[in-house]
Amino acid sequence: MRDDLVAKIQANPKYHQLKSKRNAFGWVLTVIMLIAYYGYVGVIAFDKELFAQRVGEGVTTLGIPVGFGLIVFTIAITIYYVRRANAEFDSLTDEILKEVK
Questions:
Q1: Cβ neighbours for 22, distance < 8 A, ≥ 6 positions apart
Q2: What is the pTM of this model?
Q3: How far is CA 32 from CA 13, 35, 37, 65, 75, in A?
Q4: What's the pLDDT score for residue 27?
């Protein structure tokens, strides 16, 4: 019974659409995150003076708010992924399940 259900799901064209949309979206966000993270690390490695600049009169350097921004950016794209998954991917999954049952 379970193998039959899996076969029906895999034969459904909406399942293939779901897989391709979800994979493409995941890869796009992964590449964006890798560029942001490795860009930050690359600046630290190759241009230390840029992030060593002081912000204002205190001891905070530019690297601290940029690093904090990177963390906020990570949280933001995670929220974006979850919202899209809950809206688009979950509804498509529900449609697939209704069709195969």
A1: 85, 89
A2: 0.80
A3: 29, 5, 9, 19, 13
A4: 96
